[in-house]
Specification:
Length: 683
């Protein structure tokens, strides 16, 4: 939908997903939220917004906004209001006590993929410089870390899309693996429509026929957790049919011979047995790919959120490389990031293994460079910490942290095996949560700090294309609310940080630029003025890999991948697959969107096929119970023919879905297996 122009409003960007749609924002009357209008000149969304963006201003006027720090009263156990100094002093006092008893790693920091680049950068600095802890990671680990790991291995660099999203329109074939783009980022779906208007073809691979798959020329519904086997089968047939671009493979890649041998046994009948994709469907897909000059393969959470997520993405990259696509105009491989700053959030130091500029924390040169910018001794910087789930799993345990600072994340809803994670949070000596509203995680906290939301502050985000954009402040924050940058500086100062922590976003961004200079994600040439003048600035080239890949020899790497299958397979007790995902009107854990009255808050539901419904006696709209080895959820059934008969689907925006999900981790990315586990469903 395109909103009306509001010419005197502030040009900024949506608070939610990685498309970071441009919008115009202006204040309404006091307590009445914000007016959202179109910013037609911003190229990514051309004025279009989905209903989440269109209604985003409502939270501003909501009574559910937190406007005062809250501190848990030890006598009553209830949260009470507190002054900022009291809350920050208390946090510092208790952090010092925890570190005195348990050492620097007794304190952990958990960030978010929705935080601005400036906040992500300052969080990393807070952990390493002010707290001296190695224990920092963020919820973006659960977003696209498998694609990041695969991109680094194959191309030597990780940028979600190495080309503008609009390139999709100019391709001959687009293969969407596990993306429901039409619901998760609707304005992006116009690129698919234009592709098809041009005569290009769309292939969608998803266990459900989603609104995205309904647009497809070819929709394949594999068994959840078998995308890797499907990719092996595709490459097997491409090779058998002589459709491999041998010239490209010889000139621009390494490692193909080993991959060619590894896919030799993935003949179509075997692929059908594993994936459920009939041999004629597989051959149809291969025929579409083999005849195309420009193929774009895009992955999203579907193939990535698996214990074999990195291998699965690598297998699809192998397909793209064998076709000779990466680096060719309007062709290649890309990942559709999910969270608003899923890309930038992992480039500036809130990831356990990284320093700003996408530098690895165990690289002595990287440590020396960043330490010099920070004005500290490189020897003082801690090393690599635990990944997001492992960090949470270790809380309160031997060697785990006893105090946790959470910024921009609602792990009680969004973590896998969420009941277990909640128990770990409850075992902490101190839980501090910074949020706009009383999220399910904030409700457990000892201290809750109310922070600004998107239109109340300035800062940069990096969208799914690697385009750095500027969210501009449109209105003053409510009285009593502070920016996360102020909170970070306040804690750092009280913890005796040896260097200052800036709170002005532009100043922080300039420091981030110096810290990232020369790194893999180098922001040193980007400024707020340049972003404004150019309506966003790509870090690196707008279209990457035309002249070579970011590997030492400039060639992309084929990587051999073996199919193992999901960590949990259906059995007599848990006979169906459970998969999870999103609905159009809600975003991530729903902490924001569930509080927007104009958006339908339908609650969790269980989607299942009529054959499965018949078998268990379920009726549409009536409750069913889904159980896994970790928990159960009771919710209304939605009986639809668009899902595989052996699979049930639950959206994850409400408490419950992630009490079911599996915490098996990918060995490379440490991504949990959100997307598939074994389940039983009963009435
Ligand atoms: Fe655009 Fe995503 Fe916001 Fe919707 S949620 S308006 S697609 S940025």
């Amino acid at each position: 939908m395109t909103a009306p122009e509001t010419p005197r409003a502030t040009e900024t960007h949506c608070p939610y997903c990685s498309l970071q749609c441009g919008m115009r924002v202006s204040p309404r009357g006091r307590g009445q939220g914000l007016e959202i209008g179109a910013w037609a000149a911003f190229p990514v969304n051309e004025g279009a917004l989905c209903r989440k963006g269109w209604t985003a201003g409502e939270l501003r006027g909501s009574r559910e906004r937190l406007t005062s720090p809250l501190v848990r009263d030890r006598a009553t156990g209830a949260l009470r209001t507190a002054e900022w100094d009291e809350a920050l002093d208390l946090i510092a006092e208790r952090l010092r006590a925890v570190q005195a008893a348990h050492g620097p790693d007794g304190v952990a920091v958990f960030g978010g993929g929705g935080l601005t680049n400036e906040k992500a950068y300052q969080l990393g600095k807070l952990a390493r410089v002010a707290l001296g802890t190695s224990q920092i990671d963020y919820n973006g680990r659960w977003c696209m870390s498998s694609a990041a790991s695969a991109g680094n291995q194959a191309f030597g660099i990780d940028r979600g899309l190495p080309f503008p999203l609009a390139d999709v329109e100019q391709a001959d074939v687009v293969v969407l693996v596990g993306s429901n783009l039409a619901e998760t980022m609707p304005p992006a779906a116009r690129h698919l429509d234009r592709l098809r208007e041009r005569g290009g073809r769309l292939v969608v691979i998803d266990p459900r026929i989603t609104p995205t798959a309904e647009r497809a020329d070819l929709a394949l519904q594999p068994v959840p957790g078998t995308d890797l086997a499907l990719a092996l089968g595709v490459l097997h047939l491409l090779d058998a049919q002589g459709a491999v671009d041998e010239e490209y493979v010889a000139a621009r890649t390494t490692g193909f011979d080993a991959v060619r041998r590894s896919v030799a046994a993935w003949w179509p009948e075997r692929v059908e047995r594993v994936t459920g994709i009939a041999t004629d469907e597989l051959r149809a897909l291969v025929a579409v790919l083999a005849g195309a000059d420009r193929v774009i393969v895009l992955t999203a959470r579907g193939p990535e959120q698996h214990a074999q997520g990195t291998a699965t993405v690598l297998a699809w990259i192998n397909v793209a490389l064998a076709l000779g696509m990466p680096g060719r105009p309007y062709a290649g491989y890309g990942c559709l990031t999910g969270q608003g700053n899923g890309q930038g959030g992992r480039e500036h130091g809130q990831k356990a293994d990284q320093l700003p500029g996408y530098r690895m924390i165990d690289d002595p040169d990287a440590r020396a460079h960043v330490a010099a910018v920070w004005g500290v001794d490189p020897e003082s910087l801690p090393g690599k910490g635990r990944s997001a789930y492992e960090l949470l799993d270790s809380l309160g345990q031997d060697g785990g942290a006893r105090a946790l600072l959470v910024f921009g994340s609602n792990v009680v809803v969004s973590a896998p095996n969420a009941t277990h994670v909640t128990e770990r949070l409850e075992a902490l000596d101190l839980l501090v949560v910074c949020d706009l509203v009383m999220s399910e995680t904030a409700a457990l906290a000892d201290v809750v700090l109310p922070v600004t939301q998107w239109a109340e502050e300035t800062g940069t985000m990096t969208n799914l294309e690697g385009r750095v954009i500027l969210r501009r402040q449109a209105v003053a924050p409510p009285r009593g609310v502070r920016s996360d940058l102020d909170v970070i500086a306040g804690i750092a100062e009280r913890m005796g940080a040896p260097v200052p922590f800036a709170t002005d976003p532009e100043e922080v961004f300039a420091e981030l630029g110096r810290a990232s200079a020369g790194g893999r994600a180098d922001y040193s040439g980007i400024s707020y003025d340049r972003i404004t003048a150019e309506q966003g600035v790509f870090w690196g080239a707008e279209r990457m890999f035309a002249d070579g890949f970011a590997t030492p020899d400039g060639r992309a790497r084929f990587v051999v991948t073996d199919f193992v299958g999901a960590a949990e397979q259906p059995d007599a007790s848990y006979p169906v697959h459970l998969t999870t995902g999103r609905v159009l009107a809600q975003y991530q854990s729903g902490a924001q969107t569930r509080r927007i009255r104009s958006l339908p808050d339908e609650g969790a539901f269980v989607e299942l096929h009529p054959m499965l419904a018949d078998r268990i006696g379920a009726r549409d709209g009536e409750p069913v119970v889904v159980r896994t080895r970790r928990g159960e959820l009771r919710a209304p059934a939605r009986v639809v023919a668009s899902i595989r008969p052996d699979t049930v689907f639950v959206p994850f925006h409400w408490v419950g879905a992630n009490r079911l999900t599996n915490d098996a981790l990918d060995p490379s990315s440490r991504m949990p297996e959100f997307k598939v586990c074994a389940a039983q469903v009963v009435v």
